[in-house]
Amino acid sequence: MHSTTEPLTTGPSTTEFSTTELSTTKHLTTEPSTTERLTTEPSTTESSSTESSTTEPLTTEPSTIEPPTTEPSTTEGSTTMSSTTEPLTTRPSTTEFSTTEPSTTKPLTTVPSTTERLTTEPSTTVLLTTKTLTTELSTTELSTMAVSICMSGYRLCPKTTNICVPGVWFCDGMHDCPDGEDETEDAGCYCLENELRCGITICMDEAKFCDGYPFDCKIPFNYDETGPLCEEYCDPPVPLSNGWQTSPTVKRYENGTQFTFQCNDGYTLIYPVPLVCLNGELVNNQPNCYLKCSKPIAVENGEWTGEAVIEHGDSVSVTCNDGYTLQPPTPIEYTCNDGIFDPSESDGESFSTNSGKQCRDINECENGENDCDVNAICTNNVGSYTCACNEGFSGDGMTCSDINECNGDFECSEFADCVNTIGSYDCKCRENYGGDGKYCYELLYFAYGESAGDSSLLASSENNFKTIGDYVSRPFSPATGIAFGRQFLSNCYFTQNGNFVLQDNDAVVVTYPRPPLNGFVSSDQLNIISPFWSKGYLISDDINDVFYQEYTDEGNSFFADALVTLNKIYTSTIPSDFAPSWALKVTWYQISQFPSDPNLEYVSILK
What we know:
Layout: E1 127-129, E2 134-136, E3 154-156, E4 164-166, E5 195-197, E6 203-205, H1 223-226, E7 243-245, E8 261-263, E9 267-270, E10 276-278, E11 281-283, E12 288-291, E13 293-294, E14 302-304, E15 309-310, E16 315-320, E17 324-327, E18 333-337, E19 340-343, E20 358-361, H2 364-367, E21 376-381, E22 384-389, E23 393-395, E24 400-402, E25 416-421, E26 424-429, E27 433-435, E28 440-442, E29 455-456, E30 465-467, E31 470-472, E32 482-484, E33 487-489, E34 491-494, E35 500-503, E36 509-510, E37 528-529, E38 535-537, E39 545-551, H3 557-569, E40 583-589, E41 592-594, E42 604-605
Antiparallel strand pairs: 1-2, 3-4, 5-6, 7-8, 9-12, 10-11, 13-15, 14-16, 16-18, 17-20, 18-19, 21-22, 23-24, 25-26, 27-28, 29-39, 30-31, 32-33, 34-35, 35-37, 36-42, 38-41, 39-40
């Protein structure tokens, strides 16, 4: 069992000095004989003030006292020794000064009779000195200077801030400050792993608690046997992963103790209801430290909500800038769950920092989300779109109006009329003209080609003639003959070179590839009708050809149609009672023409 002897305190001694200078006071010192201390209260000195005088300072010398001594003796400036010859240490006495004649008061000294130490407090004296007056300021008047008034090697008691004790007395397992303040956690004293604390003061081996031997704890008195640690106490909670317990950590916790915790940097403390020791059990859930999340990697043309670090349990969401759409479109919200973002919807995937989300350009022109006019072209841009009116329309693209090109510049043939259309215009060749309207040519008078019932000079070569490089048709012989000038001729044929040749039955067929080199003379007896006369080449029937058809049936509608056309051309020339009964229609189609070769000879073909 530990000694229960309480510290012995001596009363103040009184010493007076006469001086105009600051005196030097020596300290009475003793050493303890064992591990406990005898404490004396600081000495006090009363002072009176009269006229100023000049005197020498009084200095006391130590004297020797033979042991054993049990009562304090009064000796002028003496030093006392303990009964075990160990030096007795007292803290500096509080000294006050008088401006009267010097007097000497013997200081009160004590010698511990047991194993305790004699201690005194360090003195606190402040002087304001003038020529005529020395004034003392009390410790309480200088409370704001508490830290600076302890002598070197001393510390202030944590709560009773006007008491200084040697620094080595802190955390030494003994009560030196009031209520054991020098042994608390606030004083920087922590229990070892196998120790428990007496209330808030000293630490002792846990085996001394609740062992049936009382009074091991002095403050609170007998705490080791009667305190709550011997009743319904709780064992320490499970150590907090990625954090620590901020409330005092001990081996046993009193009933009603509430625990506090803190997480390491980068973690969020989830602590819905504080953990409490209640009736020997830890009540409520153990707190947890969950890893915080880093804000997701930025999405180009979009952004994530939230700060750089997201607390566990907090949510973030992603949005795209105008003109962009999120892919995949869902989910858009995620919640931080112990360092990982979990999706708010079941179709998403968890991620750490890279969500895989993209903000892609919306093609407003394809999805119809544009305001372009129906007569405008929509052009998709990155993040937007533009509208431009079609050719033939004017406006801003959102509203487009038709332009009447026929009122301005247009490109039609001189033989065509301009016809305005919605957004454009047409060129229509006038009557008796063919073409696309931008190029108009005099219309062929009759329909031609296989669709019109015509034969091909190339395809019908078995009924026609072919010489070197030239095609010539068979002769055609109308029943009434052919009136030409003053003569009636019996037949006619045509060539690929653009000629109708009229002749009698006994005449030979000649190709006539070119006109005579020297021109015609009066002796020439040729009967030729030439729509054109030039060397022409027939390549194939799908490129060019000469189409022809003979009409002999008087009931054929072609005669009536032909007569109407001819009357338009030859106005007032054809007799009104003229009724054709035979006709030969020839169409030269895309015949390539070349300059006539003078070396080409006329070739005669035997019928």
